[in-house]
Amino acid sequence: MKKTLCMLIILLFITMNTASAELFNDLDRAVTEYNAYYEELPSSIQILLGNEEILAGILMNDGSELNVWLVTENGRVAEFEKVGDVEDYDPTVIIATDEATVRSLINTTDPLSVYEEARSNGTLTIDPVGIVSSAKFLVADLAFKLFKTAGII
């Protein structure tokens, strides 16, 4: 009985690590693809994503958390890594979401709609840190709503 219980616990931990590793690998591929098509993004998005240090916390389906650190330089992702201790980082933006939302964003052909829905239903939050970052994201949110209303996007 004890042996079976120990094996189940070990299997649970292996599965938890595998799920986050799989999502991290999927995100890594998405970052590579983003960087490859970076030049095709509107300049307004390139400016918005400019030079940020982003800490993203992703609640996995199994209850664990995957933390990811991204550094953008001129809108292009320059650093992307899995994070153990979030206290070692000083982000300009903090993102909180869940595994289902990340997978939807990765797999969709309409990321703007998925993004907008996730923001409105609270499964994706973006918290700028500091006055400058907050102002920049406030203006970007207003512009996004204006462009959406005008039918531009």
Question: What distinguishing features does this structure have?
Answer:
153 residues; alpha+beta; 5-stranded mixed β-sheet; 5 helices; 5 strands; 54% helix; 23% strand; globular
Detailed description of the structure:
- This protein is 54% helix and 23% strand.
- With 153 residues, the protein is an alpha+beta fold.
- Strands 3-2-1-4-5 form a five-stranded mixed β-sheet.
- Helix 1 packs parallel to helix 3 (99-107) and helix 3 (99-107) runs antiparallel to helix 4.
Intertermini distance: 59 Å
- Secondary structure category: alpha+beta
Radius of gyration: 18 Å
Give the beta-strand count.
5
Number of helices: 5
Going across the major beta sheet, what is the strand order?
A: 3-2-1-4-5
- The low-confidence parts are 1-17
Query: In percent terms, what proportion of residues is strand?
Result: 15-25%
How would a crystallographer describe the biggest sheet? 5 strands, mixed
Dominant shape: globular
Chain-averaged pLDDT? 79
Fraction of helical residues: 40-55%
Helix-strand topology string? HHEEEEHHEH
